[in-house]
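Backbone-to-sequence.
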């Protein structure tokens, strides 16, 4: 009888230990990434304020609000120039040539982040398909393209684009660049970076941040 009770309690204790271990692992996986901070600013390119119904061309090495132009030049459209996805302004990644913009923001190492942005294309002139890339710390994390067939300044046809990356440091540099090079390039707006659970990020393409 005593031996049977000893086996019973030993088995119950082992089961309880397994349950606690499983719960601990589950908590580690599903814990909210609330501490995975991100400091991305001005994702809708509202600064500086461009001329209404016009645009301002900004060249490599010059600031673009919280962003910096890192290649070629870009065109910042003012209020009323064409349809935006969010706010009054958006950014054509081609100025006179293919351009690029970047921003460095705070991240938490080993946390996953989802990048979303609204994508369209300058519908004024060829090529019809506008192409570009997003780099995370200098590494290509995402390729994108947009077909401007049937699109107009009043109906830009923005689509949502997204990908995810895992941060390896306390800061990450995000760069958007055009591979079109026609002077009529891809248009981006409403850039957002949010911490996410890597296993739950939707439709992610994992980029490198080191």
């Amino acid at each position: 009888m005593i031996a049977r009770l000893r086996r019973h309690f030993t088995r119950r204790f082992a089961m309880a230990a397994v349950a606690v271990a499983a719960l601990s692992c589950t908590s580690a996986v599903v814990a909210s990434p609330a501490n995975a901070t991100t400091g991305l600013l001005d994702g809708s390119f509202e600064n500086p304020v461009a001329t209404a119904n016009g645009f301002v061309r900004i060249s490599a090495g010059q600031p673009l609000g919280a962003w910096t132009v890192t290649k070629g030049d870009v065109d910042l459209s003012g209020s009323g120039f064409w349809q935006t996805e969010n706010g009054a302004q958006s950014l054509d990644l081609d100025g006179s040539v293919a351009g690029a913009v970047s921003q460095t923001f705070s991240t938490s190492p080993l946390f996953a982040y989802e990048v979303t942005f609204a994508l369209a294309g300058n519908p004024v002139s060829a090529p019809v398909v506008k192409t570009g890339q997003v780099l995370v710390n200098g590494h290509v994390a995402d390729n994108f393209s947009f077909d401007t067939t049937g699109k107009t300044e009043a109906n830009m046809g923005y689509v949502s684009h997204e990908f995810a990356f895992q941060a390896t440091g306390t800061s990450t540099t995000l760069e958007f660049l055009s591979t079109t090079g026609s002077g009529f390039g891809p248009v981006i707006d409403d850039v957002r970076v949010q911490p996410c659970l890597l296993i739950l990020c939707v439709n992610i393409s994992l980029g490198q941040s080191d």
